[in-house]
């Protein structure tokens, strides 16, 4: 027996959107960590998703209906993500969930969306090795971020790699890929180090860096540790003259928390930067700043959060219904002119074609793009297109 | 003269009332809510053990997340073996492990998983606590140490991800002992199993605390050294009660994972471990029933606030903790006692919570 | 038999024997080469100035303080150095502390129940039940220590003196062979002292007793044998009459009370 | 000097002191006697301000202090030697004594030599921590700590408990000495020893079950046996 | 040889940071017996204060003066954290003296509130603080570079420690503080206003947390949850050193810092942490109440 009052309460208080009960709205779930350690990254993504929802509503909604976001807090805890996903699907009966950041949160939601035949759009680059029929992956697969970055580094920066990551799934798996790739290319792995999540003392790591003298550090540290690492690296007097750090989890938002002064000259690999020069982006950045303040910055996961809402909306329009199976089918091949360049949903694995971009950090905290893939790269979460990776994806 | 309402506030009647409510509630709320309630019941089981340890024996553990986690992980390992398609779970494949490690294999049998989920925490707790208590590490030293233990354990779990699933935890189960996890009937069944476990654990612990053994626990809390000079080897009592509470935590973890479908390190870390203690405090330590109510109410409130006010719920939660601890040191149960006293019964009762927790007892 | 200097040995076997016992805190010797022995069934008073080491000696016997040198033998054969506190209690040594120490949140009855002689290992306690004979024993003790009315009162609400009584009761419930009381009558009225003294004489039939006390009237009245400690060492021992005549004892401990009183009376 | 009127004190709702009125005249030594648990210490604590009475008033040098806290009363000149000593265990003897000076208005940190004359052991062990002292040494320290502030009213709760006989007589001397040399200092003494009480006190109160049952300048044997026997 | 110097320096450097984060706790927890779970959030307050001071300098003062912000930030961080500490004492802690474990729970709640407040004011993402220019670079000693920032923190912690030790053990107010913490009631009976002393003591402890926060901006992240990174370490330092002993806190911090560095170097960061904790447990087996134990014979 469903209690209707409860449902109304849930939606009514969320995000300040007044709901007129009835058939002419579509409820969508927005599930990110608003508290706990992941809040610092995820709140901005939520903001971008809400922005997209507003835009769609302003343009007349989806199928003529307004979208009503139901916002939930995943509290940086995977079981909470799983609980709230179940709540959104069972209780609020949302048409789709936009949410998650860490792989742990995605893995927690995965069985829930599968069992309830729901839809999840996930906005963050991740380690691959997954393709659930109920999830659309708007972030980069490894071949859209890591692999091209390593190729570029080998060509431009040197062959002595130091792999540094936080001790969890994404860095471990990313580094396996990198190691295979290095071996394939005859490059050298000088050291591989992991630090616990939230680690803040990098003295010892820096000593190791000094000893092993890499030309490249491939950095898969998680948010907060990046701050400590880069500050301490700079204090130790190690500059871009000595080596280059390539990061895959440092975007504009993180740069502000680290301080551009210590990052200048280091690199990152993403599919989007605030400085990416497309007409869609100029508008997106302007709208985002207008909505949330001039001092805010955009970044890759923010952009992914933004465009994936639009992708879903287009898929619903194409399907003519919010029914999950119909939307899933209709989504294949859907394209959208995202701020980071055109994106397209892949039919094989429900990931997204994206342009790969390598950027150098500037003194103002923005990126200067030094390379891009030209066209959108096909996602390959299992790295099936790379022989050298066969040992990793082997079942 | 004792009025009916006063009688209802007796602890045992309170418990009976609670159980009746828990038994019939699923007929009135959605499956989703029932499932949530089932999780809270798992927590309620856990806090009974914590209350034995803290409320009665005065040993504050901020490390029960570990034992909860052990039970949960063992059951999760079993469920994930039940559901896996290949020879090993996915995450092992990525880490280049092709054969099930022995400590996984032994839990592939459901019976051994259930026994393991309870016994492994007990055994580990008894070994650990034997060394800690034997050397008279106590009070805040013990408490801080347990907190550090949590940190180490989660760090270990995360860093040994090829065996443990790392930060992702273990998830993705489809069946449980052959029943489909997504079926509402299975979920209801698990709910009632949880209620049943709550009853059994509660009764056993009630009998325990009302026996001479229970008095010994209180004596340890209030004057451990004095008790030693009365001929008791208090450290062994503490080892026993610590292990028992760890076993209960393991059981709770097992029930939790069956209903939630995931266990990951964040669930057993420092903050969840502290929250468990808060449930005890909010309900009223040293009363058994209080913590049970505290766990269910606090978690319901937490869910309610965080669903309704995702941006503000931490303020609520923080304030509730502060206010309860300051103004209601005996927890919700002291409120019940107050009402009861007004209800006509002027019995003088002990309130263990207003005692001063001086670190030096008279003979220390 | 052991080669012991003590003369009492001829009459009764020794229950506690200390041999060149020393207890040290840092560089400070609270007890230094202290020889002491007490035979079965004796009521023995241990006196001496504040800081002489009396409490420390009791601490050493009951295992609270580790001693650095010397030996402590119980019943002639048991070396107390090797035992933990609770094992020492199980051997039959009971101790009342100088400041009353009881379980404040248990009732008076429960306090006595826990102290009662019984199997105190974990598992037996887990399955033990209250027997009618236990109850009777506790009730008897309650009337003996005058706390019958407070039977179900939480112990922390007792007054200082009542706590003292309760603790004496608790130690007696252990049915020890050697009872050690540290200033048992402190804070008691004279009548109460009297009663305590009679209690001691009664208990003496069951066990040996060491009493530390500063109240000389009390000592005079009840002591069989008195040992005087000073600076952690044995000053002298003997009957109260002998002690009272000892110059050193008068100087460091008793004071020249009589003369002073006379002087002031002028 | 000190005046209690119609005092009623309770612990957690259970009354232990009922309708107690008591006066201590300046320069007098007043002795409060009674069996264990009749409420002597409770009265002392209420005078000091550690406990708040339910009813009644406490006045001190013509000022009503019922609502004032303990530190106010201490600074007004009430000194307190509690039963159970209450030494600061981690502070040295010397520091314990210096703390006694806090109640005084002038901030000079100097211990009157006389204190050391009364209790020589405190000088010997000046730097030992209070908690390491023997019971009797602590009791001496507690008395000394109260004396250093030169209080005008001294509350002594069983000051001789646990003290060796010759020092007991010294304390007796100290009290007499105070009576002689500080004629305005009054003392309220709780004491079990009949002889001791008789030798120093000018006035007696005897309590039973939370009430004053006898008062007078002399303590008659029959009264004693009536109220003080078990 | 170089390796040795670097290792030793890294150990001392980590130890100095641990000491800095634990110094305030040595007061609020060590002396006052308040298990202050909001200590990490007080550190956070110090860090955000530094950030605000920096922003103000950047906006309103000429660029040449920018580097001076840091000198002002440290005392301001102390004062702001101390004031908030006072507020916490006044509203929460004062109800909880003598109930250490309750204080743990209540301050945990306070921590949540402070975290959420910071999130509301400064946003969830980290904010950046630029280290002052004169702390850039390092000192060359025998072929190794010792970063000025690390040297500065070591200096800061030495000064903080000496000030605190002098205040607590050599001044009259320090004596009052210690007396009140040991026996509140009796101190009051001697004319010490324990309310005032409690308030001030907690404020001082909080203020030192603020200083730690200011220092941490030089080397770590500044966000609403940074307190959680440091809180367990801070408690471990105090406990290993011995609760209530300031000197113990120093020993605990250096010990943990050095062993952590060595173990991390031998193995890796995760295992290093595990090994340090294993060592701590072993150590407490041997000394159950820390390196410098306060355990005196209790009153009997
Ligand atoms: N832990 C300790 N550290 C330093 N000195 C100590 C310690 N324990 C006891 N002492 C010292 O040892 C001496 C003996 O103390 P003890 O308590 O045995 O005396 P006592 O004979 O019981 O005195 P009293 O009659 O006053 O109770 C005292 O001088 C005391 O200060
Ligand atoms: N903290 C407390 N809580 C409740 N009741 C108490 C408390 N302290 C004392 N009482 C009760 O108050 C009564 C008076 O106690 P008080 O300590 O004043 O007695 P007393 O006359 O000083 O006795 P004694 O000679 O033994 O020291 C006692 O009956 C005791 O049970
Ligand atoms: N998916 C990530 N970056 O954890
Ligand atoms: Mg003694
Ligand atoms: Mg008294």
Automatic annotation (TrEMBL), chain B:
<feature type="transmembrane region" description="Helical">
    <location>
        <begin position="165"/>
        <end position="182"/>
    </location>
</feature>
<keyword id="KW-0812">Transmembrane</keyword>
<feature type="region of interest" description="Disordered">
    <location>
        <begin position="343"/>
        <end position="364"/>
    </location>
</feature>
<feature type="transmembrane region" description="Helical">
    <location>
        <begin position="312"/>
        <end position="336"/>
    </location>
</feature>
<feature type="transmembrane region" description="Helical">
    <location>
        <begin position="140"/>
        <end position="159"/>
    </location>
</feature>
<keyword id="KW-1003">Cell membrane</keyword>
<feature type="transmembrane region" description="Helical">
    <location>
        <begin position="61"/>
        <end position="81"/>
    </location>
</feature>
<feature type="transmembrane region" description="Helical">
    <location>
        <begin position="12"/>
        <end position="30"/>
    </location>
</feature>
<feature type="transmembrane region" description="Helical">
    <location>
        <begin position="189"/>
        <end position="209"/>
    </location>
</feature>
<dbReference type="Pfam" id="PF02653">
    <property type="entry name" value="BPD_transp_2"/>
</dbReference>
<dbReference type="GO" id="GO:0015658">
    <property type="term" value="F:branched-chain amino acid transmembrane transporter activity"/>
</dbReference>
<feature type="transmembrane region" description="Helical">
    <location>
        <begin position="276"/>
        <end position="297"/>
    </location>
</feature>
UniProtKB/TrEMBL annotation, chain C:
<dbReference type="GO" id="GO:0005886">
    <property type="term" value="C:plasma membrane"/>
</dbReference>
<dbReference type="InterPro" id="IPR003593">
    <property type="entry name" value="AAA+_ATPase"/>
</dbReference>
<keyword id="KW-0813">Transport</keyword>
<keyword id="KW-0547">Nucleotide-binding</keyword>
<dbReference type="InterPro" id="IPR017781">
    <property type="entry name" value="ABC_transptr_urea_ATP-bd_UrtD"/>
</dbReference>
<feature type="domain" description="ABC transporter">
    <location>
        <begin position="16"/>
        <end position="256"/>
    </location>
</feature>
<dbReference type="InterPro" id="IPR051120">
    <property type="entry name" value="ABC_AA/LPS_Transport"/>
</dbReference>
<dbReference type="InterPro" id="IPR027417">
    <property type="entry name" value="P-loop_NTPase"/>
</dbReference>
<dbReference type="InterPro" id="IPR032823">
    <property type="entry name" value="BCA_ABC_TP_C"/>
</dbReference>
<keyword id="KW-0067">ATP-binding</keyword>
<dbReference type="Pfam" id="PF00005">
    <property type="entry name" value="ABC_tran"/>
</dbReference>
<protein>
    <submittedName>
        <fullName>Urea ABC transporter ATP-binding protein UrtD</fullName>
    </submittedName>
</protein>
From TrEMBL, chain D:
<protein>
    <submittedName>
        <fullName>Urea ABC transporter ATP-binding subunit UrtE</fullName>
    </submittedName>
</protein>
<keyword id="KW-0067">ATP-binding</keyword>
<dbReference type="InterPro" id="IPR052156">
    <property type="entry name" value="BCAA_Transport_ATP-bd_LivF"/>
</dbReference>
<dbReference type="InterPro" id="IPR003593">
    <property type="entry name" value="AAA+_ATPase"/>
</dbReference>
<comment type="similarity">
    <text>Belongs to the ABC transporter superfamily.</text>
</comment>
<dbReference type="GO" id="GO:0015807">
    <property type="term" value="P:L-amino acid transport"/>
</dbReference>
<keyword id="KW-0547">Nucleotide-binding</keyword>
<dbReference type="Pfam" id="PF00005">
    <property type="entry name" value="ABC_tran"/>
</dbReference>
<dbReference type="InterPro" id="IPR017780">
    <property type="entry name" value="ABC_transptr_urea_ATP-bd_UrtE"/>
</dbReference>
<feature type="domain" description="ABC transporter">
    <location>
        <begin position="2"/>
        <end position="228"/>
    </location>
</feature>
<keyword id="KW-0029">Amino-acid transport</keyword>
<dbReference type="InterPro" id="IPR027417">
    <property type="entry name" value="P-loop_NTPase"/>
</dbReference>
TrEMBL record, chain E:
<keyword id="KW-0813">Transport</keyword>
<keyword id="KW-1003">Cell membrane</keyword>
<dbReference type="InterPro" id="IPR017779">
    <property type="entry name" value="ABC_UrtB_bac"/>
</dbReference>
<keyword id="KW-0472">Membrane</keyword>
<feature type="transmembrane region" description="Helical">
    <location>
        <begin position="42"/>
        <end position="62"/>
    </location>
</feature>
<dbReference type="GO" id="GO:0022857">
    <property type="term" value="F:transmembrane transporter activity"/>
</dbReference>
<dbReference type="InterPro" id="IPR001851">
    <property type="entry name" value="ABC_transp_permease"/>
</dbReference>
<protein>
    <submittedName>
        <fullName>Urea ABC transporter permease subunit UrtB</fullName>
    </submittedName>
</protein>
<dbReference type="Pfam" id="PF02653">
    <property type="entry name" value="BPD_transp_2"/>
</dbReference>
<dbReference type="GO" id="GO:0006865">
    <property type="term" value="P:amino acid transport"/>
</dbReference>
<feature type="transmembrane region" description="Helical">
    <location>
        <begin position="265"/>
        <end position="286"/>
    </location>
</feature>
<feature type="transmembrane region" description="Helical">
    <location>
        <begin position="199"/>
        <end position="222"/>
    </location>
</feature>
């Amino acid at each position: 027996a469903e209690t209707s009052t409860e449902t109304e309460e849930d939606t009514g208080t969320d995000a300040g959107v007044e709901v007129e009960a009835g058939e002419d709205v579509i409820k969508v779930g927005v599930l990110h960590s608003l508290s706990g350690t992941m809040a610092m990254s995820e709140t901005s993504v939520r903001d971008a998703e809400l922005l997209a929802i507003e835009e769609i509503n302003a343009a007349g909604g989806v199928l003529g209906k307004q979208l009503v976001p139901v916002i939930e807090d995943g509290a940086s805890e995977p079981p909470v993500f799983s609980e709230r996903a179940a709540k959104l699907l069972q209780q609020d009966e949302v048409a789709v969930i936009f949410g998650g950041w860490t792989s742990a949160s995605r893995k927690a939601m995965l069985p829930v969306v599968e069992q309830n035949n729901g839809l999840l759009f996930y906005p963050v680059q991740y380690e691959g090795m997954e393709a659930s029929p109920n999830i659309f992956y708007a972030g980069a697969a490894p071949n859209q971020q890591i692999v091209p970055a390593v190729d570029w580094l080998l060509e431009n920066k040197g062959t002595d790699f130091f792999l540094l990551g936080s001790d969890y799934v994404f860095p471990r798996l990313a580094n396996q890929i990198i190691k295979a790739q290095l071996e394939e290319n005859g490059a050298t792995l000088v050291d591989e180090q992991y630090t616990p999540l939230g680690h803040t003392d990098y003295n010892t790591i820096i000593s190791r860096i000094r000893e092993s003298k890499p030309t490249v550090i491939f950095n898969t540290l998680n948010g907060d540790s990046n701050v400590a690492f880069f500050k301490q690296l700079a204090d130790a007097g190690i500059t871009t003259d000595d080596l280059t750090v390539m990061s895959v989890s440092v975007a504009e938002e993180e740069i502000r928390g680290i301080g551009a002064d210590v990052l200048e000259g280091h690199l990152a690999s993403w599919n989007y930067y605030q400085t990416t020069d497309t007409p869609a982006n100029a508008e997106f950045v302007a709208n985002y700043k207008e909505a949330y303040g001039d001092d805010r910055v955009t970044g890759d996961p923010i952009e992914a959060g933004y465009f994936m809402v639009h992708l879903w909306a287009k898929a619903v329009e194409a399907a003519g219904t919010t029914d999950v199976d119909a939307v899933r089918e209709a989504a294949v091949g859907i394209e959208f002119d995202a701020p980071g360049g055109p994106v397209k949903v892949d039919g094989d694995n429900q990931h997204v074609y994206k342009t790969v971009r390598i950027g150098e950090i500037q003194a103002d905290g923005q990126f200067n793009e030094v390379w891009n893939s030209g066209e959108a790269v096909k996602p390959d979460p299992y790295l099936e297109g790379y022989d050298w990776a066969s040992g990793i994806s082997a079942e | 003269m004792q009025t009916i309402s006063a009688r209802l506030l007796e602890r045992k009647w309170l418990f009976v009332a609670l159980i009746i409510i828990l038994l019939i509630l699923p007929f009135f709320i959605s499956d989703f809510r029932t499932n949530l309630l089932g999780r809270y019941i798992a927590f309620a089981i856990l806090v009974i053990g914590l209350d034995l340890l803290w409320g009665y024996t005065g040993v504050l553990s901020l490390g029960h997340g570990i034992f909860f986690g052990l039970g949960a992980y063992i059951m999760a390992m079993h469920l994930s073996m039940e559901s896996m398609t290949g020879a090993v779970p996915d995450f092992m494949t990525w880490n280049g492990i092709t054969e099930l490690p022995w400590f996984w294999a032994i839990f592939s049998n459901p019976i051994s998983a259930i026994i393991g989920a309870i016994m492994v925490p007990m055994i580990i707790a008894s070994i650990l606590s034997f060394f800690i208590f034997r050397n008279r590490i106590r009070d805040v030293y013990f408490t801080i140490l347990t907190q550090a233990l949590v940190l180490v354990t989660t760090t270990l779990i995360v860093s040994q991800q090829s065996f443990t699933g790392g930060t992702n935890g273990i998830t993705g189960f489809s069946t449980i002992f052959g029943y489909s996890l997504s079926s509402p009937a299975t979920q209801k069944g698990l709910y009632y199993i949880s209620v049943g476990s709550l009853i059994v654990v509660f009764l056993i612990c009630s009998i325990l605390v009302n026996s001479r053994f229970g008095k010994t626990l209180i004596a340890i809390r209030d004057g451990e050294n004095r008790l030693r000079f009365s001929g008791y080897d208090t450290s062994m009592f503490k080892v026993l009660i610590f292990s028992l509470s760890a076993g209960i935590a393991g059981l709770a973890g097992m029930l939790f994972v069956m209903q939630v479908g995931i266990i990951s390190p964040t669930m057993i870390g420092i903050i969840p471990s502290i929250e468990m203690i808060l449930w005890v405090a909010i309900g009223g330590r040293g009363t058994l029933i209080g913590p049970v109510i505290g766990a269910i109410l606090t978690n319901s409130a937490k869910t309610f606030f965080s669903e309704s006010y995702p941006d503000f719920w931490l303020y609520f939660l923080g304030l509730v903790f502060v206010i309860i601890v300051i103004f209601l040191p005996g927890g919700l149960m002291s409120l019940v006692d107050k009402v009861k006293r007004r209800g006509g019964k002027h019995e003088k009762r002990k309130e263990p919570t207003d005692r001063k927790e001086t670190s030096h007892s008279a003979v220390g | 038999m052991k080669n012991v200097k003590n003369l009492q040995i001829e009459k009764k076997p020794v229950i506690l024997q200390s041999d060149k016992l020393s207890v040290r805190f840092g560089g400070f010797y609270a007890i230094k080469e202290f020889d002491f022995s007490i035979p079965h069934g004796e009521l023995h008073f241990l006196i001496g100035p504040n800081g002489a080491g009396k409490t420390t000696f009791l601490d050493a016997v009951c295992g609270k303080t580790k001693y650095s040198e010397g030996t402590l033998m119980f019943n002639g054969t048991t070396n107390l150095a090797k035992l933990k506190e609770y094992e020492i209690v199980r051997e039959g040594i009971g101790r009342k502390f100088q400041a009353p120490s009881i379980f404040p949140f248990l009732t008076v009855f429960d306090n006595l129940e826990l102290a009662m002689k019984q199997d105190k290992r974990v598992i037996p306690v887990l399955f033990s039940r209250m027997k009618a004979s236990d109850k009777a024993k506790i009730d008897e003790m309650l009337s003996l220590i005058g706390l019958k009315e407070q039977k179900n009162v939480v112990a922390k609400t007792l007054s200082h003196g009542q706590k003292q009584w309760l603790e004496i009761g608790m130690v007696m419930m252990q049915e020890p062979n050697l009872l050690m009381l540290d200033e048992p009558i402190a804070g008691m009225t004279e009548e109460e002292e009297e009663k305590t003294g009679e209690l001691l004489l009664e208990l003496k039939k069951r066990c040996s007793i060491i009493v530390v006390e500063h109240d000389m009237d009390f000592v005079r009245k009840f002591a069989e044998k008195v040992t005087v400690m000073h600076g952690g060492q044995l000053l002298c021992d003997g009957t109260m009459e002998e002690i009272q005549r000892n110059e050193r004892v008068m100087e460091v401990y008793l004071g020249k009370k009589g003369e002073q009183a006379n002087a002031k009376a002028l | 000097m000190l005046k209690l009127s119609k005092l009623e004190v309770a612990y957690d709702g259970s009354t232990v002191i009922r309708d107690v009125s008591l006066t201590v005249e300046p320069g007098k030594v007043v002795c409060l006697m009674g069996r264990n648990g009749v409420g002597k210490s409770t009265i002392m604590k209420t005078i000091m301000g550690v406990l708040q009475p339910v009813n009644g008033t406490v006045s001190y040098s013509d000022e009503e202090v019922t609502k004032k806290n303990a530190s106010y009363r201490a600074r007004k000149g009430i000194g307190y030697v509690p039963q159970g000593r209450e030494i600061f265990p981690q502070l040295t003897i010397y520091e314990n004594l210096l703390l006694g000076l806090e109640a005084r208005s002038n901030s000079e940190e100097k211990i009157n030599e006389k204190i050391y004359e009364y209790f020589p052991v405190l000088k010997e062990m000046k730097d030992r921590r209070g908690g390491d002292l023997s019971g009797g040494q602590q009791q001496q320290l507690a008395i000394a700590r109260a004396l250093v502030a030169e209080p005008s009213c001294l509350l002594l709760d069983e000051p001789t408990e646990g003290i060796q006989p010759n020092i007991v007589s010294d304390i007796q001397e100290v009290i007499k000495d105070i009576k002689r040399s500080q004629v305005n200092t009054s003392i309220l003494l709780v004491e079990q020893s009949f002889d001791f009480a008789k030798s120093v006190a000018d006035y007696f109160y005897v309590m039973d079950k939370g009430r004053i049952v006898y008062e007078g300048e002399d303590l008659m044997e029959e009264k004693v046996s009536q109220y003080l026997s078990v | 040889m170089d390796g040795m110097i670097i290792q030793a320096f890294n150990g001392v450097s980590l130890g100095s940071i641990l000491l800095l984060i634990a110094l305030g706790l040595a007061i609020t927890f060590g002396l006052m017996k308040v298990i202050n779970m909001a200590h990490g959030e007080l550190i956070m307050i110090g860090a955000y204060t530094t950030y605000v001071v920096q922003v103000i300098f950047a906006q309103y003062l000429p660029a040449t003066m920018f580097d001076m912000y840091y000198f002002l930030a440290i005392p301001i961080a102390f004062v702001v954290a101390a004031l908030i500490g006072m507020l916490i004492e006044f509203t929460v802690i004062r109800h909880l003296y003598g109930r250490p474990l309750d204080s743990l729970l209540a301050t945990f709640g306070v921590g949540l509130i402070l975290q959420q407040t910071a999130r509301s004011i400064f946003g969830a993402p980290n904010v950046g603080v630029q280290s002052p220019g004169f702390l850039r670079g390092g000192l060359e000693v025998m072929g190794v570079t010792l970063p000025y920032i690390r040297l500065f923190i070591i200096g800061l912690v030495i000064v903080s420690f000496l000030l605190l030790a002098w205040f607590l053990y050599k001044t009259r107010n320090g004596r009052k503080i210690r007396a009140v913490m040991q026996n509140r009631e009796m101190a009051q009976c001697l004319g010490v206003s324990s309310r005032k002393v409690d308030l001030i003591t907690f404020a001082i402890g909080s203020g030192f947390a603020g200083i730690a926060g200011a220092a941490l901006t030089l080397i770590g992240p500044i966000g609403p949850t940074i307190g959680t990174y440091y809180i367990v370490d801070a408690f471990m330092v105090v406990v290993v050193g011995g609760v209530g002993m300031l000197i113990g806190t120093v020993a605990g911090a250096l010990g943990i810092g050095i062993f952590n560095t060595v173990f991390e170097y031998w193995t890796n960061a995760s295992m290093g942490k595990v090994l340090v904790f294993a060592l701590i447990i072993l150590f407490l087996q041997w000394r159950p109440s820390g390196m410098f134990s306060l355990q005196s014979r209790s009153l009997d």
